[in-house]
């Protein structure tokens, strides 16, 4: 069986593919920290409820505010650089 002949690749195609990978990597890096901290908060929720006696509405509000503040702070840090 013969090996396929190499295809000349257009440099602009290579640039677009490299750009797409960079955009994907940037999005993964940007979303990971808030998602990880929200995950840790979800693990701590049963203990928080037990210690504070908060209702489910109060906990939902606290988690929503935490997520909003953490993503907003991360966005401000990225734009400040």
Commentary on this structure:
The chain has 81 residues and is mainly alpha-helical. It has two helices and no strands. It has helices at residues 11-52, 56-80. Helix 1 packs antiparallel against helix 2. The chain is elongated. The N and C termini lie far apart (54 Å).
Quick tags:
about 80 residues; mainly alpha; 2 helices; elongated
Detail the topology: elements first, then pairings.
Blueprint: H1 11-52, H2 56-80
Helix pairs in contact: 1-2
Classify the helix fraction into a percent range: over 70%
**What is the distance, rounded to the nearest whole angstrom, between the alpha carbons of the first and last residues?**
54 Å
Q: Could you tell me the mean pLDDT?
A: 81
The total strand number stands at: 0
- Radius of gyration (CA) equals 22 Å
Low-confidence stretches: none
Shape: elongated
Structural class: mainly alpha
- Main beta sheet strand tally, sense and closure: none
Helix/strand order, N-terminal first: HH
Instruction: Note the total helix count.
Output: 2
Indicate the proportion of strand residues: under 5%
């Amino acid at each position: 069986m013969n090996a396929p002949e190499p295809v000349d690749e257009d440099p602009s195609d290579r640039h677009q593919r490299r750009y797409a990978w960079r955009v994907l990597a940037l999005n993964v890096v940007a979303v990971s920290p808030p998602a990880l901290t929200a995950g840790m908060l979800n693990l701590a929720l049963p203990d928080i409820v037990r210690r504070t006696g908060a209702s489910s509405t109060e906990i939902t509000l606290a988690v929503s505010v935490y997520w909003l503040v953490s993503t907003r702070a991360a966005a401000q840090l990225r734009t400040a650089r």
